[in-house]
Each structure stands twice: as C-alpha cells, then as structure tokens.
Amino acid sequence: MNEENFLNAFFDRISQFISEISWKDIKEVATDSILTFPQNYDLILKPALNETIYMSLMSVSFGFILAIVPGILLATWDKNGIKENKIAYSILDFIINILRAFPFLILIVILLPLSKIIVGTSIGTDAAIVPLAIGVAPYLAKTLESAFKEVDKGIIEAAKSYGASNMQIIFKVIFVESLPNIINGLTLILIFTIGFSALAGTVGGGGLGDIAIRYGYERFNKEIMIQTVVILLILVQIIQILGNLFYSWSKNNKTLNIIFSLIILFAISIISNNEKNYIFQLIICLFLIVSFIFIFIKKKKLFHNF
C-alpha cells in the first residue's frame, strides 16, 4: 500500500512539473542562446574553453606520468604476472582503490596548499591541474593495468623463450601490444577529466565549469548555462571521435596516420592565438616522439636483439 502511495505521489509530481513547463519560455531561452552565442563565445566562452582543454590535457599528461609505475607494478605483481607478488599487489591495489574512492571536491580542498607550493597559487587554472592530475592518476593506473593484462600471454611467453628480460618484456612487448587499449583508456579518462575540470570551477579553478557557476547559476543566466553545456557536449564528442580514430589506427599498426594527425594538431595550435599553446605543443611533441619510438621498435621486428 505504501508503495502504491509512493508511486501515485511520484507521478503526481511529474504531472505537476510538466504542467508548469512554459514552452514559450523554453523557445525564448533557446532562441536567445543561439542569438547571443557569437558574442558570449568571443568574450567569455572561448577563453574558458581554452582553459578547460589546457587543464584536461595537462592533468591527464601529468597523471599518466604518475600512473606509469603503479600501473606496471600492478600488472607484473598480479596473478600470472611476469613477477607475481600477491602481498605487494594487494597493498598497492588497496591504496589505489582508496584514492579512487576519494571525493574529488574534497581532494581539491586538501591539495590547495600543495598547489600553492608547486605553482605559487591556490586559485586558477594552473592550481587546479595539481589536484586534477593526482585525482586521475589512480584511474590511469588501473587503466594501464587492465590494458597490460589484455596482452596475449603467448606473445609474452615467446619473448621469454628468446631470453628477454622483464624490462624488455614490459617496454618492448607489453607496452607495444597494449597501445590500442591504452589509447582507448586515455580517451575515456580525458573525457572523465573534463567533467572533473568543470567541478574544479566551483572552487575557482577556471574553465567552463567556473563560467557555468558564476554566470549561469549565480546570475541566473540560462543562456550561458545552455551554451556551456552544448560546448562541453561537442568537446566530448570530438575527443571520443579522435580517440576512436587513434584506437583503430594503432590497432592496425598505422602509426604514420597517428603522426600525420599529431602534425595537423601541432599546426592548428601554432595558427591559433593562445598564450598557453606552447604547453599543448610540448605534449604533441612528446606523443610524436612516442610514435617514432613505436615505429622504431616495430621495424626492429621486436625480438631481433633479444
């Protein structure tokens, strides 16, 4: 009986909500959002979009650096790993799971003093990168672990039979063979980080989240709120499309296509006027170096020097 009353009250609230909707107001807000978009984009949204992309890319890059060692250790210490160690794996896995379960908003507040030590301020885009990088590092470590575990055991055994050391197996076999899955995981984490960066805007981290809070929520500007959401949706779709392309190209070992795409991104970053583009260019250069290393390893036929 109580369930029936609950359902009836629930549907009554939905009916009341629908009846209170003014389709005329929705049409006006949608029209105003379209008409004011060019002006708002140039004055407010474009700088915020650049900050969001900058925060997300830098956070994932630094987070990936922090996650490489834990990711490798998790994969090698796990059951059937190349150097199985159940106790060490359990301890490291427990620590990473705790860090993943930590509320991100609280993590930002806790790490504000660390941000001030590293970048000299606890407010702004640069300050938000520190907690963002630390926050996504555990997720990246588990992503790397999962990618490494999906490598065919037969390839690893073949490398061992050729006398390859553990370091050679990790960097010349596992990393190379797991590259498509790593790219796929990085795409998901980058999208995840964009959501985190929007949350960082609530504590003065800058970016689209800051715009949505200050202009959209606090000033009751529905047009800015809608425009911010639309930009975030488009940004996520673009990243997912690029991630899928990189995944399929790396899956088919078409590394030259990846290099060509990175060169295009590098050219776009040079043409556009953004004072922080040098960071973006540096990241692309790092990816280009990794791509060339990947080609070099493939050309050596992998086991030739084992």
Beta percentage is under 5%
The CATH class of the largest domain: Mainly Alpha
Number of domains: 2
What is the number of helices? Answer: 13
Tell me how many strands there are: 0
Major β-sheet annotation: none
CATH topology of the largest domain: MetI-like fold
Q: Report the mean per-residue pLDDT as an integer.
A: 76
CATH superfamily of the largest domain: MetI-like
- Helix percent reads over 70%
Shape: elongated
As a whole number of angstroms, the C-alpha radius of gyration is 23 Å
Helix-strand topology string? HHHHHHHHHHHHH
CATH architecture descriptor text of the largest domain? Orthogonal Bundle
Provide structural commentary:
83% of the residues lie in helices and 0% in strands. Helix 2 crosses helix 6 and helix 7 packs antiparallel against helix 8 (166-177). The N and C termini lie far apart (73 Å). It has helices at residues 2-20, 23-77, 86-101, 104-110, 112-119, 125-149, 153-161, 166-177, 179-200, 207-217, 222-251, 255-271, 277-299. It has 2 domains: 36-239, Orthogonal Bundle (MetI-like fold); 253-300. The chain contains 13 helices and no strands. The mean pLDDT is 76. It is elongated. By secondary structure, the chain is an all-alpha fold.
Question: Which features does this protein show?
Answer:
single chain, 306 residues, mainly alpha, MetI-like fold, 2 domains, 13 helices, elongated
Write the layout of secondary structure elements.
Blueprint: H1 2-20, H2 23-77, H3 86-101, H4 104-110, H5 112-119, H6 125-149, H7 153-161, H8 166-177, H9 179-200, H10 207-217, H11 222-251, H12 255-271, H13 277-299
